[in-house]
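Good morning N.,

You mentioned wanting to compare the apo and holo forms, so I went ahead and generated the holo version with beta-D-fucopyranose. This is what I fed in:
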Amino acid sequence: MTDIKIQLGVASAATQIEGGDLVHTWSDWYKKGHIHDSADPARANDHLHRWKEDIDLMADMGITIYRLSIEWARIEPARGAYDEAAVSWYRELLSYIKSKGIAPLLTLHHFTNPLWFEGSGGFSEPANIPVFLGFVEYAVKKFGDLVDEYVTINEPNVFAVMGYFDGVFPPGRRSIPETLRVQSIMSSCHIQAYELIHRLRKEMGYTNTKVGFAHHARVFEPQSKNNLWHRFIAGLTSLMFQGVLTRACLLGRFSFPLKKYGAVCPGQYADFLGLNYYTRSTVSKLGDGVREGSHRNDLGWEIYPEGIAQCARELHELLPRPIYITENGTCDNNDSFRCRYIHDHLKALVDSGLPVERYYHWCFTDNFEWCEGESARFGLVHIDYATQKRTVKNSGRFFAAIIKNRGITKEMYDEFVAPQEYHL
Ligand code: FCB
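and this is what came out, ligand included:
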């Protein structure tokens, strides 16, 4: 029996599940033909109409914590023009979540910008920092009585690198200086949002506020440990992808090549360490790479369970705070190794002895996986997109059983984990 004291929940993001016609960067990216399977985010999981069914299913599985996000473009479709109906919908959703005994962790920005914001330079324009903070203030004033815990920004490093270095996310730019500027600006946004949320919630009379950001971290390793160049470039990639940004966001320390924008001081800007962990990168040049002969998921990402503890430890050494795994999961279209993946990652966390308090599995239902569209399945619950029928997968039953038994019994291991194997 493996005892698991970590609280288990699930995660999602507005653009990936809600559906509906909105004017934002991802509907625009779809219209420009960048979604590999041509899936339209206006469909997604139709969570906009099926939210009750989804939350009921969550509660039936025994889930008590849920990380979700709000869609900026839905709430503020034009600059300064807020949609009261959208606010009411989120309030109803959040109230329902709570009525089912589920505590929400609310992400304020998860990859998607309203097109009006993007049009004015988005996060590559320092003058837009107050614009983002204006949205944060509005959201906290509207939802602050329902939500105690916040993620300011999801994966600022992935947003910057995919959108401004690799050019595969909107706005499709390829520029190192811009990538660094976006990382710097988003770090300032996080710090200022951290302070703002605390101030606003305090003014509302609450003392139990928790704020952090969801950091995407990987293990970076040289392809050959004996190759000096590989070692150098692995270190540099890690520093550029996550190292400098981690220190900026958590500690307000902006070291070269990041730049400080606005009035931000050194400090401690996280009440929990949010970690999104998926994989290890094996590096021989500036960029990504996968170790030869390694186990891989259906998107070709290496499966490397020890890495989750390694990344969590690095964050904890920088700032000792409770650790929340804000995302961990895998693309397994046939649900043929997800149970083993969950088992191995949870075990690595338990064995690490680190103060890991929560684990939010990415994700609850299959959903719109950005550039991959509907063809990359990460969910514990299967979605038939044509009928929108939800069906709990084998891995969903396993996850529910872990919650129920507060661990993995021998019987559960034999039923769910032992029959599964990773593939190359
Ligand atoms: C993370 C994103 C999340 C999801 C997973 C697979 O980088 O935060 O929205 O797409 O990857």
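The longest strand covers residues 103-109.

Happy to go through it together on a call whenever suits you.

Best,
F.
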